[in-house]
Amino acid sequence: MDFGAGIIPSEPTFISEWNYLKAQDDTKSELFVHFPDSVDTTTRPVKVTVEVRIKASGNSYIFNAFGSSPRDDDTPKKYGGVIYFYNASGVIIMLPSSTNQFKSGGAVYCGEKKDWYYPTSHQNKTIDEIDFVEAEVRVKMWQQKDMPPRYDSGFVYTMTSRNLSKGAVVTYLEVPVKIHPDIVVVQAEPVNPFSRMPGLISEGNGMPACLRCGFQTGSLTFAFNASHVRLWVKSLYPIISAMDGWGRNEYYHFGTHAVRVRILSWTLDSAVNSSGMTTKIGDHSTTTPKLVFPSETVTKDLLVQVLIRPLSGPNGNFSFYGAGSVVTFRGYGTSHRYSGLVFGYNNFGVYVWRVKPTNMSYVFDIDYPWGSGRQKQQTNDVEIDIRVIGLMKKAKRKCMCPCNKVHAVRYTSTNEEALTKEIVKMKKELMVLKNETSVAMRRKISVKDSRPSAAASGAVWVIFLLAMVGFIVIPDVISGVRFILDFGAGIIPYEPTFISEWKYVKAQDDTKSELFVHFPDSVDTTTRPVKVTVEVRIKASGNSYIFNAFGSSPRDDDTPKKYGGVIYFYNASSVIIMLPSSTNQFKSGGAVYCGEKKDWYYPTSHQNKTIDEIDFVEAEVRVKMWQQKDMPPRYDSGFVYTMTSRNLSKGAVVTYLEVPVKIHPDIVVVQAEPVNPFSRMPGLISEGNGIYG
Predict the structure, then answer these.
(1) What is the pTM of this model?
(2) What is the DSSP track for 105-159?
(3) Sign of torsion over alpha carbons 567, 571, 575, 578
(4) What is the pLDDT of residue 560?
(5) Model confidence over 665-674: pLDDT tens digits?
(6) Other beta carbons within 10 Å of 616
(7) Within 13 Å, how many C-alpha atoms sit on residue 657's CB side?
(8) Are strands 320-321 and 302-310 parallel, antiparallel or unpaired?
């Protein structure tokens, strides 16, 4: 009954520090925030918010990030935004980073004053136009134990934005939630998991700010009223996307048109410390609302929401959350309508920016391709609702142990996993198994029989059993020994389990110096390969030549001396391939470099012709991968040896090992995995190299 009355939201399970980021900067436009060891990383959060802080006109303002890419960078029209995805272990945060000539995206952008209504500050002073490339970001994360939802659908709804030959296209859903929600979160996970971030979740956004804004952009929009949640995705567009102009573009090819959706909602207790205001806006309104706090407030103790509700029409009384940045500037293109409601907050209040209505812009607008045109509506008659919810401190709870004789408090909640495990263990220890009692055991044991006839009968059965062993088991043993001896003579290696197509790459090019090759669905991705080779092909002096890549970085770019190389790592599902890409003024690295002839002996071609000096920035790469079933090793040590290159206070430094292998090998592969797993590529393997130049 207490829970039925609603909840008082707790402060976040985890709040990160503020971290500096910068749009259009390859080294500062992306950040992965790991959840600490104190957090249970076996279950995914119920809510994550990424806050973006800038300083304008003497005050700091905090805006919220988007749950997926709201637009691309294919036009010079200004925009802003930060996007994020998360799983059980952390959050990936990305800012705009151009993949073409248009560096039009920033961290936060609130439009030009001729197109947008700006609020005044808490002191009623003018706020300058907000257009920031640099910002600070912070993660707030709630796990279920600290914010248990009143309603949780689970990932039971599937939405698809185009025909994937596996079912109907579903771009609009209306789902009953059976309660009157005060807070709603919509989580989407790709139907085909993203191997670089297992368990990835994208949170749905509120009112769409742009109807199209690039064919590689993706999002899920939702709204709710007292009993239903409505969901829209864009027909033919990705639903989750980080494509075309976000972060370091390592996720450039990540976009999915099919997702599973989970709806979570909360009803707040009447005792929640909250405040708010509601403002009606019409065609002729020229102001925009703000809520000023009675006194300065610590923002990390608040949950701030701004919602927009059409007063009538198809979406009347449905609430849409506001956005965290303007993603259009007078439209993505000259013929594209746009809309927008942006909000920010600080220690002194909550502030709303809204679009000025024109024949191309509305305060509220949802239309095709969203939901294939379902529940479409354009209106300037809306209600804007500002809500500020105080978060309860996580107080120490009383001991849940069964008696007052416990001196050390072990469990403070009946929901704790450790308590559940201990209860199960105690039940097992106290349970009496009927088939193991002395009475039951006596029924299964025969007493000794000294009669000669009993001994004779037993001897007959012993002879019979020995004959069975002789006729059945021994021939199988002989066959097995023959197989082992045949195998011991060696193997004939099979063709690779998987060979990729040749792919174009280019050193010193931010968009072409890295490539992710996924193993196909036909390959077993539950076990890691026994060998992977990455081949690098160039054409010199009229002939193609193939070189092998390195299993790790052979050198850096801190001198102008020329070098070449391609490096790669892999896990059970894919291979990441990287070419040199400068982090300083020296762009000295290429794809393949064979040195100058004054320093290196060059061979001649198969026609005995001279081969020109090889110094190539561009190349093609191909992956060959063998799994154990297609190339079973004669000897496999497993990952039993540890090597360390410096004193990590956990043992001796081990920079050299000599290991007996007991056979004469013709092929040897040495695989290395980090002692501390690399969260962005679980199960990463680096193959050892031969002689270094």
Answers:
(1) 0.59
(2) EESEE---TTTEEPPB-TTSPBPPP-EESEEEEEEEEE-TTTS--SEE--S-EEE
(3) negative
(4) 86
(5) 889 999 999 9
(6) 20
(7) 13
(8) antiparallel
